[in-house]
Amino acid sequence: MKNFTIQEYQAQVDDVLVRHRSILDILTKLQESTAKVNRAVAKSATYCGCVKINVEKQAVPEDTSYSQLKNYMKEHIDGNLCDICREKVEAELSANIFYFTTLCNAFKIDVGELITKHHEQLKTLGKYGLL
Question: Which CATH architecture has domain 22-130?
Answer without folding.
Answer: Orthogonal Bundle (1.10)
